[in-house]
């Protein structure tokens, strides 16, 4: 069994409309699914991605309107990377972010790649990373109707950054249980602390976790602008069930098998408390909507369809 790379990442927002405006109009992602949190249907769950929301391109948000600001700290998914095709694309993006007055640090180097750190309107920490030297997991395909030039468009999720008080137990579950390989390290440009890089599948920008040990930090308090969990790609449902059996065999507490309709999942926490998910590549977002109209109306999984009227009354309409 081998995890194929990053599947999706789910973050928190307090304003669904502003979130849609930022991620579709400024970053040029396609909203591929407008649905609800299946565990709490009174809140939106918005999915952005490439042209069809291919696995590895999905950035998702739960809307909690009264959520306080995220308090950055330890035991956290601390930064989310988004891949762009080339170094040239980063120059395009630096100009675009400045044009829209998006806070950014300019183009720097990180682990031998050009990157552009920035923040969204809720101070979520993000990085655009160049795929120019990538030889690993292949990226997706920007949506042709995006406001961003397709030659420079975002092609998927890049390395996901974790901050932990003790790296040893996290490394143990990554390498001994999940099959990640240690790929190198570098010094973080802000903290001057060492960051250890782990890779899975074909590696590269679509298959990396960057882990920083910061014992002096307080634990993060999750809120708007924070990240809830990261998911890793599993090829099939049968393989996911094998992973579940493995977790149970070695005594890792988990959610059991969960059917999310668009993919099947298993959730568990690594030793520093960060929530991980294993998710299948399919069946995908075109399961209940025509591919040409993804995200244009509220989609509900079959088990929630009978409650549509009640659910829609609790949600504020989104213009898209």
From TrEMBL:
Pfam families the UniProt entry points to: Glyoxalase
GO molecular function, one term: dioxygenase activity
UniProt keyword list: Dioxygenase, Oxidoreductase
SUPFAM superfamilies linked to this entry: Glyoxalase/Bleomycin resistance protein/Dihydroxybiphenyl dioxygenase
VOC domain mapped to chain residues: 5-131, 156-281
UniProt superkingdom: Bacteria
Xref: InterPro entries: Extradiol_RC_dioxygenase, Glyas_Bleomycin-R_OHBP_Dase, Glyas_Fos-R_dOase_dom, VOC_core
Protein name as it appears in the record: Ring-cleaving dioxygenase
Lineage of producing organism: Bacteria, Bacillati, Bacillota, Bacilli, Bacillales
């Amino acid at each position: 069994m081998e995890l194929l790379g990053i599947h999706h990442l789910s973050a928190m927002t307090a304003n669904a409309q502003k979130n849609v405006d930022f991620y579709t109009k400024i970053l040029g992602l396609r909203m591929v699914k407008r649905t609800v949190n299946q565990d709490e249907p009174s809140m939106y769950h918005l999915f952005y991605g490439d042209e069809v929301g291919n696995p590895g391109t999905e950035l998702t948000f739960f809307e909690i309107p009264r959520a306080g600001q995220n308090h950055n700290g330890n035991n956290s998914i601390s930064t989310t990377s988004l891949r762009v095709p080339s170094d040239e694309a980063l120059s395009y993006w630096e100009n675009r972010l400045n044009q829209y007055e998006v806070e950014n640090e300019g183009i720097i180097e990180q682990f031998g790649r050009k990157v552009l750190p920035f923040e969204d309107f809720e101070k979520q920490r993000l990085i655009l990373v160049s795929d120019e030297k990538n030889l690993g997991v292949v990226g997706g395909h920007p949506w042709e109707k995006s406001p961003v030039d397709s030659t420079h468009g975002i092609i998927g999720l890049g390395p996901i950054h974790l901050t932990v008080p003790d790296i040893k137990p996290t490394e143990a579950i990554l390498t001994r249980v999940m099959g990640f390989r240690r790929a190198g390290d570098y010094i973080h440009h802000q903290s001057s602390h060492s960051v250890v890089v782990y890779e899975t599948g074909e590696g590269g920008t679509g298959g990396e976790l960057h882990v920083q040990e910061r014992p002096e930090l307080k634990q993060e308090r999750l809120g708007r602008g924070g990240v809830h969990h990261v998911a890793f790609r599993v090829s099939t449902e049968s393989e996911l069930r094998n992973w579940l059996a493995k977790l149970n065999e070695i005594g890792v507490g988990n959610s059991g098998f969960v059917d999310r309709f668009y993919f099947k999942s298993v959730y568990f926490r690594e030793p520093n408390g960060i929530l991980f998910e294993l998710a299948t590549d399919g069946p995908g977002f075109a399961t209940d909507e025509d591919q040409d109209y993804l995200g244009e109306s509220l989609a509900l999984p079959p088990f929630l369809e009978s409650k549509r009227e009640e659910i829609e009354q609790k949600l504020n309409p989104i213009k898209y």
